[in-house]
Amino acid sequence: MNGETDITGADGVPDPVTADLRLSVNGVPRPVTVDTRETLLDTLREHLGLTGAKKGCDHGQCGACTVLVDGRRALSCLTLTVTADDVEIVTVEGLADGDALHPLQAAFIENDALQCGYCTPGQLCSAAGALAEAADGWPSAVTPDLSAPPRLDETEIRERMSGNLCRCGAYPGIVAAVGQVAR
Amino acid sequence: MTMDFLRPATWAEALEAKAERPGAVPVQGGTDVMVELNFDVRRPDALLDLNRVAALGEWSAEEDGRLRVGAGVTYARLIAELGDRLPGLAQAARTVGSPQIRNRGTVGGNLGAASPAGDGHPPLLAAGAEIEVESAARGVRMIPAEEFYLGVKRSALEPDELIRAFWTRPAGGPQYFSKVGTRNAMVIAVCSFALALHPAERRAGTGIGSAAPTPRRAVAAEEFLAAELDWDTGRLDPGLPRRFGELAAGAASPIDDVRGTAAYRRHAVAVLARRTLTWAWHDLWAAGPHEGPHDGPRGRVRRPGGPVAPGDPGDPEKPRREAG
Q: Model-level pTM?
């Protein structure tokens, strides 16, 4: 932390407290200096040029800013960048393997799982996280038998994707796409 | 306005930091604190990030038989690692926010915010949990859950204290949590209810959420169950759950707000109480009346009643979508 609280800039406004960090995004080290109040979403979009994650609501309601943090889905709008210097961050830009689309990306295209596309990066990261959670045996609120591995039928997918809103209403395509990859 | 960012690496450092800067806002998952920061509802002069304090993310079985669950254990881990021993809390955890929120949010954060609508509170009350808090100056204090909540978003936590863990016994009988909301994900409960049967003590614990200034027990309803439940034969008089519901509703003191009216909440608390009791009692005696109550938690885990759409609280006493 290189900030000192009472330094006042030329305009009489206190300079922000900043921190020098070395983030790891999509497998690449990204050194960056951020205001301690900055969210990971703002850092990704404004400092690192990664505009895939979207600012839909900025308070954890819509899921458009979903990224993977150490393999688990998290909302980048509710994550302070200063807390993310010791984790692996993956955004939608990091899902594909070079020019080869991630299976979820291919399935979204095949199943028309988007219209305007604004929520899609969050949907994709969330779906990747959901598949990993199911593979690890995590139950959801609709899992009927907690002792058996969860089976990703439509009800399960809808519940597990319930943190991501799509105002175009592409849900049937999203459910189909996630289901296709889950099988 | 600037904001200092404090990142203690150990619990001792965290307590020192909180003693020096009592105004610092502790943050773990950030799922509650960050909403207030992003919308400028709150401008703390410092944040105290607890993510580096590894001990907070641990849980353990203690010598007195209770579980001590660190304040930094996420809802997702609680469901996966402790769902069998803390079924009521795990049911509630599966309805918190969204999967993304559950991967980051913690019961410790729920306690720190002390919102009357927090989903973690009713199961803690029903189970008789204790909250372990600590300060550098005065050491550890154990606060029973029912004494922890003092008012809307006010708790018994002193400005120089931090929440270390909660302590609770593994379930000794069936536990249920049920809440009313417009959908499962991303809604704040209109009201909620938790029930824990304690067969070894022939009593039940309760917790009401979002229907009073604080989460609270329905004490008269608990006393009624302790006196009236037939623990010898398992027979359940049809009038008993109804009366239990009425007494639970009597313990609520809800308000009218954007999520629902006071009258609706009172009615819904009665319905949730009646249902959770019926489910739990049926679970307890499902093996047949001659076997009597089980001492331990049941092997078969049934999914909870789940959230119920408003305006739909008169349905049969059966967990919704149970058969799936």
A: 0.91
